[in-house]
Amino acid sequence: LRAANQQLQADVAERKRMEEKIRASLREKEVLLKEVHHRVKNNMQVISSILNLQSRYIKNNHTLKVFADSQNRIRSMALVHEKLYESEDLAKIDFAEYVRSMTSYLLGLHGAGNSIRFDIDIKDILLDVNTAIPCGLIINELVSNSLKYAFPKGRGGEIYICLHLAEDDKFTLTVKDNGIGLPKGLDFRKTESLGMQLVIMLTEQLDGSIEVDIKKGTTFKIRFEAAG
Q1: If you count DSSP H runs as helices and E runs as strands, how many of each does the chain have, helices first?
Q2: Of the candidates 14, 61, 92, 194, which lies 20 to 30 Å from 76 by C-alpha distance?
Q3: Please, which residues bridge with residue 164 across strands?
Q4: Is the Cβ–Cβ distance between 211 and 221 less than 8 Å?
Q5: pLDDT, tens only, 131-168
Q6: What does the buried/exposed string (b/e) look like for 20-35 if buried means 16 or more CB atoms within 10 Å of the residue's CB?
Q7: Does the reported pTM lie above 0.70?
Q8: Is 160 helix (H, G, I), strand (E, B) or coil?
Q9: CB–CB of 225/208 below 8 Å?
């Protein structure tokens, strides 16, 4: 009995040592993963700064807008890594918080002030980086388009953003504005707009589908499978 008890104590002590070793390894990996997200975010900010410096030498307004749009896309991606760096999960971000940060930035960027109101209907949605980045870029393009074109001459309005998970395990993303709507006869799938081409491409990347309703403004509805 004495020998058995001693062996049991030795086994327990060895198990505790192994558990502590595993915990230490996990802590180390968490620190490394945080550092990866932090460095990716910083590298993207460097790219954005380079574009900003380069744009100072450009006189053509159209080219300047292209540079500005590219900076917004880079910032949208960098913001995902920033939120992952700040998150306790490290693998997924609170998407509602991410969208609020993005829309606040875009509102200030386009100088809309208090004339445009955002209604964000996203609750308890956590997305990993592979879903958050394309989904975030889609929202960035659609919201930017609304702020640029849907409310001309200082017209006020509302932009509604909703993401929810249905019972069929599919996400539905809705971006809607009550602005002047798309031009009549415009086929958004055939437009030469890089922004709309990106929305279509990113929806395909998510294996999703996209629908547009032009009644009382413009509504984009995108459905895609939940990851994992």
Answers
A1: 5, 7
A2: 61
A3: 172
A4: yes
A5: 988 999 999 999 999 998 889 887 889 999 999 988 78
A6: eeeeeeeeeeeeeeee
A7: yes
A8: strand
A9: yes
Residue 163: is it exposed, middle or buried by C-beta count within 10 angstroms (0-12/13-18/19+)? buried
Instruction: Answer whether 107's CB lies under 8 Å from 147's CB.
Output: yes
Tokens 């502590």 locate to 20
CA distances from 19 to 8, 13, 32, 180, 199 (A): 16, 10, 20, 61, 46
Q: Which tokens go with 217?
A: 């403004």
- Per the prediction, the chain carries an average pLDDT of 85
Of the listed ranges 82-86, 156-160, 204-208, 210-214, the least confidently predicted one is 82-86
Residues 6+ apart with CB under 8 A from 6: none
CA dist., res. 28 & res. 158, Å (int):
45
How far from the centroid of its chain's Cα atoms is residue 151's Cα? 24
Amino acid at 84: L
Signed CA dihedral, 207, 221, 197, 38: sign only: negative
Long-range contacts, 191-199 (Cβ 8 Å, 24+) = 193/145, 194/66, 194/69, 195/69, 195/141, 195/144, 195/145, 196/141, 196/145, 198/73, 198/137, 198/138, 198/141, 199/138, 199/141, 199/142
Residues 6+ apart with CB under 8 A from 124: none
**Percentage of the chain lying above the pLDDT 70 cut:** 92
Task: Specify whether the CB–CB gap between 161 and 172 falls below 8 A.
Answer: no
